[in-house]
Amino acid sequence: MINQLAKIFEGISTFGQMDTQTVVIRLALIALGLLLIYLSAKDVLDPLILMPMGLAMTAVNGAILTIDGALANLFLDPMIAKPDEVVNSMQIFFLQPIYNLTFSNGLIACLVFMGIGVMTDLDFLIARPLMSLLIAVAAELGSILTFPLAVAFGFTYKEAAAIAIVGGADGPMVLFTSLVLAKHLFVPIAVVAYVYLSVTYAIYPYMIKLLLPKWMQGIPMDVRSIPRVSSRQKLTFAVLAGTVLSLLFPVAAPLFASFFIGVIVKEANIPRYRKFLDEVVLNGSSFFLGFVLGALLSVKVVTDPRIFLIMILGMVALLISGIGGVIGGVVACWLSGGKINPLIGIAGVSCVPTTAKVAQKCAFDVNKKNIILPFAMGPCVAGVITTAIITGIYVGLLR
Question: Where do the domains of the chain lie?
Answer without folding.
Answer: 1-74, 105-398
